[in-house]
Amino acid sequence: KVGTVFLLVAFFLIISALLSVEFFQGSLHFRCHTQDHIRADGSGRVCNRQASIHSAASAFGTSHATLEATLGLCPARARCIFHATAPYNGLISFDSVMQAFIPLLLTLTFDEYSEIMYMLASTHYPSAIIFFVLVVALGVRPHRSPLIP
């Protein structure tokens, strides 16, 4: 019985890692920095390099400040700059299947998963939220999953 649960969790982690790499690869490498102060360590708020403030503001009919948190936009006078390392010195990343296991294991154990979810949601809203809810709902208790009789 324990072996079956282990195999089920391993299968779930592999499928989740493959999906997360497919959807979120490279997303956490972009951070907000001002023109005069670019941090060498790569710290800073994760941002969405593809979001456009003008198109988003007109689409939602709202202000820049409201959209900053929702769409991962940088504050005024800041730019979204690429960094070679992902957050936490490259530990939290979806760039490869092996690297995706760390944030997925943190999610399954409820250890700081909300911070990872919000970082990813700033680049892929709302798909990141949906992904994390599904990982938590289906992966936390595999022996009581609604998909398994």
UniProtKB/TrEMBL annotation:
The segment(s) forming the Ion transport domain are 2-139
Does the record's keyword annotation contain Membrane?
Answer: yes
What is any one of the record's Gene Ontology cellular component terms?
voltage-gated sodium channel complex
Q: Which domain of life is it from?
A: Eukaryota
Under Pfam families, the record lists: Ion_trans (PF00520)
InterPro entries registered for this protein in UniProt: Ion_trans_dom, VGCC_Ca_Na
Keyword field = Membrane, Transmembrane, Transmembrane helix
Q: Which GO terms describe its molecular function?
A: voltage-gated sodium channel activity
Q: Has UniProt tagged this entry with the keyword Cytoplasm?
A: no
Transmembrane intervals: 6-24, 116-140
PANTHER family registered for this protein in UniProt: SODIUM CHANNEL PROTEIN 60E, VOLTAGE-GATED CATION CHANNEL CALCIUM AND SODIUM
The molecule here is called Ion transport domain-containing protein
Q: Which organism is it from?
A: Haptolina brevifila
